[in-house]
Amino acid sequence: MGKLWTVIRREYVERVRSKWFVIVTLFGPLFFGSIMVLPGYLSVRAMREARVANIRIIDATGAGLGARVARRLAPTPLQGEAQAMAAVDTVAPADVTATEAALLDEIQARTLVGVLTVDAATLQAGTARYMGRNAGSVGEVQAIESAIKQALLGSGMEAAGIATEQADALLRLRVRVSAERVTDEGKGGSGLANTIFGFGVAFLLYFSIVFYGQAILRGVLEEKTTRVAEVIVASVKPDILLAGKVIGVGSVGLTQQIVWLASGIGFYTQRSRIFSLLGMEGMPPIPMPSIEAPVLAALVLFFLLGYTLYASLFAAVGAMVGSQEEAQQAAQPVIMLLVFSIIFAQPVLTNPTSRLAEAMSWIPFSAPIIMPMRMTATPVSWTEITLSLLGVALASAACVWLAARIYRVGLLMYGKRPGLGELLRWIRQA
After folding, report:
1. Cβ-based neighbours of 306, under 8 Å, separated by 6 or more
2. pTM exceeding 0.90
3. Which residue among 40, 113, 201, 312 is least enclosed by CB atoms within 10 Å?
4. What is the domain extent for residue 76?
């Protein structure tokens, strides 16, 4: 036990003292906080600084649709400012081509940004034409499409006898549904918050496996290529060395994630002050997930077992190869197992009760990533959770056993990478 602790301490201290660990640990929360807050801040600022794009509207409908579209495109004016709207040219259908040609020259001369044409086809089929320098901007084109749609709906409502004010009120109507989970114990909090939390747990495990699993691989490979392993194995059994590496490097990841979690809690508790400093008043409340203690314990077990499973495989890969190039190739099957799991995250979150989600929860290599998302998004029976945990535990034990036997032989083997037959011989002889 003393030798195992020595290996764990060595792996932990060596990595924690690294300047890159300090940089990533300290600046990681700043980075993730920035990508969470910055888009909202920029959106609010863009809305405040929004102005009518310098476009012209050619209206050949004869029904005043162009003026309606211009009103929908006009941004809300700032205090003390008059509402600015795009200019509208009402023309006969026969004059549309000539008008477009004349305005095209203005676009090329940069006095106009674009020209929107609405005609009889817009009224009948909802089609319109736009040409401009910003035609490649998906957001602006979608804004134009939305304005035309609202204008057509408003026109149809007025034709049906609905007053203009009532039509505008209906078009501005927004519906928001507050979804709350219900479990066997009762109400379970915000469904969206739980779904986001489940995805966060799955992504955290994925990140930990990719980053720290490959750190184990590189550490084993470095010790093997520099012949340090020969000295270490003389005093420590390979099995203890493997266990120390997996636990030590895993403890480094756990330390980093505890720091990130504490930073996340601090950010959440101070979110109102942070948003206020950025000028983002009236931000909607951010609901916290409601996770029962048994579910939280199951999530931790999935996390630990999943990390152990993949970390042992990466350690075995490091013992098999003799160079960094070979390591990249040999690690591909392990990485593909991870990719296979994470690509199904969106379908599982969309429908966590589907057959696909259930099947992925039973596969030991994908269960540590898929099952946490299902457990937090929708109630899952404890029988299914227990059996899935048991499957992951058995797979982890089998991978650790295989990795230990490969590690025991491969750590002192040099030369070309072993084939499948030779690996089987290593396992039998170890």
Report:
1. 205, 209, 367, 368, 369, 392, 396
2. no
3. 40
4. 51-171
